[in-house]
Design brief:
The complex is a heterodimer. Chain A is α/β, with parallel strands linked by helices. Chain A has two domains: 126 residues, Rossmann fold; 68 residues. Chain A contains six helices and five strands, in the order E-H-E-H-E-H-E-H-E-H-H. In chain A, strands 2-1-3-4-5 form a five-stranded parallel β-sheet, with helices on both faces. The longest helix of chain A is centred in the C-terminal third of the chain and has 64 residues. Chain A starts with a strand and ends with a helix. About 8% of the residues of chain A have low confidence. Chain B is mostly helical. Chain B has a single domain, classed as Transmembrane di-heme cytochromes, Chain C (Fumarate Reductase Cytochrome B subunit). Helices cover 63% and strands 4% of the residues of chain B. Chain B is built from seven helices and two strands; from the N terminus they run βαααααααβ. The longest helix of chain B is centred in the N-terminal third of the chain and has 27 residues. The relative contact order of chain B is 0.15. The C terminus of chain B is likely disordered. Classes of the chains: A alpha/beta, B mainly alpha. Chains A and B meet through helix 1, helix 5 and helix 6 of A and strand 1, helix 3 and helix 4 of B.
């Protein structure tokens, strides 16, 4: 079992799931995206998620239907509604569907992080996460070491990239005239080809 | 339209103190180097001011460095490792600055919290912050007390070499500061980026941004 928590983000705007991905990746989460409600339900049917974040307005199955179906089939999975406007009617429907909370746009990294932590910590581990009794005692320490190791690796990578950046920049600047000329030549060739055979 | 929290408080504090310190360093530097061109204060005083401002700049740079080393925003200063992508985006950005901007074409670069600099801007900042500024600080310290650092100065080729490097980088900064301010006016309104550097928030069109986070 991995200590990585799986978060499903359902939104027809890929920018939202990218935001979750940027904020949560490397912090002990795996972000999976779905572009619509039906895709989300298919994904939840195949594997367990620790939390589902869904937009309301989507083509086909909307976010509240997703919440309702999850409430029926996976009542332990917290569902958080991501909303821009939040009409009272939608809010009442969502509350009736038993959502864990609302996340209002515009989103900030802190909002995303806090909301995910709150949603996940509010529920006990999912059925699929219960490990065998013997393994359960040993697992957290091993997973904790893995997470710490991964964090250290991320810090080393970040600082390494930071320190290497100006030298990479210098190399690019040195290459720029040559690659610039090559790109210019390539553009010229493309233009000439188009002129010779417009089709 | 939504807001992106692009510039955290430590970055804003560093940025504006750096702006004031750099302008004052340039002015005092001009008086020291080009005697008679400007006369801000007596020569001894201007040298002392230049030295103190230099130490403030070093301290301020450490604020910047500590913030980025302890934050995941350090990714802002990472290089694009795909050279083809970098050159293609750089050329697009140059075409925009040289031509598109005058035709009201959209800026080809859309900022996000971890990618707030366009490719040429990113390379420029990496070079300035991680190569030119440290060299300027080191040469400044060496010139501050030539007797104490005589061996180091000799190691780098003598006073003339150290002084020339310091002055050359100073000239780069003198031209860079107004250029930086000019680029700052190229938002949707001339004051947009300046305001953002006070409030921390950049405005972004819904659907255009690559990141709604922050």
């Amino acid at each position: 079992m991995s200590i990585l928590r799986k978060v499903l983000v359902v939104d027809d705007d890929p920018v939202i799931s990218k935001s979750f991905d940027r904020v949560l990746t490397g912090k002990g989460y795996i972000v999976v995206s779905a572009e619509n409600g039906q895709e989300a339900l298919n994904k939840v049917a195949k594997e367990e998620y620790d939390a589902v974040f869904t937009d309301i307005r989507m083509p086909g199955v909307d976010g509240i239907e997703v919440a309702e179906q999850l409430r029926a089939k996976h009542p332990w999975t917290p569902v958080v509604i991501i909303t821009g406007y939040g009409s009272p009617d939608n809010q009442a429907r969502a509350e009736a569907a038993g959502v864990s909370g609302f996340l209002r746009k515009p989103l900030s990294p802190e909002m995303i992080k806090k909301s995910v932590e709150a949603a996940i910590s509010a529920v006990p581990p999912t059925a699929a996460e219960f490990p065998p009794v013997a393994a359960a005692a040993a697992q957290p320490a091993a997973d904790g070491e893995q997470t710490a190791g991964r964090k250290v690796a991320v810090v080393f990578k970040d600082v390494g990239m930071f320190l290497a950046a100006p030298f990479i920049g210098l190399a690019y600047i040195a290459l720029f005239p040559f690659i610039g000329l090559a790109m210019l030549a390539w553009t010229g060739v493309q233009a000439w080809r188009q002129r010779v055979s417009p089709d | 339209m939504h807001r992106i929290y692009m510039h955290p408080l430590p970055v804003r504090v560093w940025h504006w103190s750096n702006a004031v310190i750099c302008v004052m360093l340039c002015l005092t530097g001009i008086q020291i180097r080009y005697v008679g061109l400007i006369n801000l204060m007596p020569f001894r005083m201007v040298v002392a001011a230049h030295n103190w401002l230099g130490f403030l700049l070093i301290a301020n740079t450490f604020i910047w460095l500590l913030f980025y080393l302890s934050s995941d925003r350090i990714r802002t200063y990472h290089s694009e490792l795909n050279p083809i992508k970098l050159f293609r985006e750089s050329v697009r950005q140059f075409v925009y600055y040289g031509y598109g901007i005058f035709k009201e074409a959209p800026n080809p670069f859309v900022a996000s919290i971890y990618r707030k600099f366009n490719p040429p801007q990113s390379m420029t900042y990496q070079l300035i912050m991680l190569i030119l500024l440290p060299i300027q600080c080191v040469t400044g310290i060496l010139l501050w007390d030539l007797t104490r650092y005589a061996r180091a100065v000799a190691f780098f080729g003598g006073v003339r070499v150290v002084d020339t490097v310091h002055v050359l980088i100073f000239i780069v900064f003198v031209f860079y500061i107004p250029f930086h301010a000019y680029l700052g006016t190229l938002g949707r309104t001339p004051m947009e980026h300046f305001k953002a550097m006070f409030t921390g928030y950049e405005e972004s069109d819904e659907g255009e941004s690559t990141d709604k986070a922050e």
